[in-house]
Amino acid sequence: MLAFRVVTSGSSPRWRMLAVLGAVAGSILAGFLFRLEGTVSMVGALPSGWPAPALDRLGAEDIAALAGPAELVLVEGVPGFHDVTRHPDGTRIPGLTIVRFDAPLFFANGQVFVDHVRLLVDRSPVPVRCVIVAAEAITGIDSTAVEQLVQLDEYLHAQGTVLVFAEIKGPIKDKLARFGPETRLGQARHYPTLESAVDAWRQDPDSG
């Protein structure tokens, strides 16, 4: 498994900008390989350490911007769920954390997503009973990211928190089942829409 490190200091603005551009190019190439091959085999064959040299130089805020993790909240008078960074006055549903990820999940960003979810759960003022992943934009996933999701699920389960997915695409669901059939990720915890996932939890909040 590729070790993924984030260095938050010691980089000049020019280098940080070049590193961001390099990481973006790497993400685009990885996404292309997902679509071209339809499996994770080509990504697994990438040279060791790619694109780690660029990623190592990124600050935490740069990684977050590239990876696209976002907590979703309710906004009064606006239907649906919205990014809390754009709507800081939005409200959270007690006991429920909703997180969106706007990129394929692979070896270079999977841990960013996992750490983001854990941080939200750990910092919640009330115990989180359910984490819903709005997964519509997750268009690819590799075996490393699946392993990281399994570890996240185990971490949450130990705290009495259930991990579910909404709007997840069929091929991603199949990969979760194939790579982790013996885990809870391989079971039926998928909802067609984010609203249906939230409604299901509201009807049975003790299910987590």
DSSP helix fraction: 40-55%
Q: In one word, what is the shape? A: globular
Please state roughly what percent of the residues sit in beta strands, choosing from under 5%, 5-15%, 15-25%, 25-35%, 35-45% or over 45%. Answer: 5-15%
| Strand order in space, largest sheet | 2-1-3-4-5-6
Radius of gyration, in Å, reads: 17 Å
For the biggest sheet, the summary is: 6 strands, mixed
Low-confidence stretches: 1-11, 15-20, 28-65
- The overall average pLDDT, rounded, is 75
What is the chain-wise order of helices and strands?
A: HHHHEEEHEHEHEH
Number of strands: 6
Give the helix/strand class. Answer: alpha/beta
Number of helices: 8
How far apart the termini lie comes to: 30 Å
Protein described:
This protein is an alpha/beta fold and 208 residues long. It contains eight helices and six strands. It has helices spanning 13-37, 41-44, 52-56, 60-67, 110-123, 143-158, 170-179, 194-203; strands at residues 69-75, 78-83, 96-101, 130-134, 162-166, 190-191. A six-stranded mixed beta sheet has the order 2-1-3-4-5-6. Helix 5 runs parallel beside helix 6 (143-158). The two termini are 30 Å apart. The model is unreliable at 1-11, 15-20 and 28-65 (pLDDT under 50).
Topology:
Elements: H1 13-37, H2 41-44, H3 52-56, H4 60-67, E1 69-75, E2 78-83, E3 96-101, H5 110-123, E4 130-134, H6 143-158, E5 162-166, H7 170-179, E6 190-191, H8 194-203
Entry summary:
With 208 residues, the protein is an alpha/beta fold. It has helices at 13-37, 41-44, 52-56, 60-67, 110-123, 143-158, 170-179, 194-203; strands spanning 69-75, 78-83, 96-101, 130-134, 162-166, 190-191.
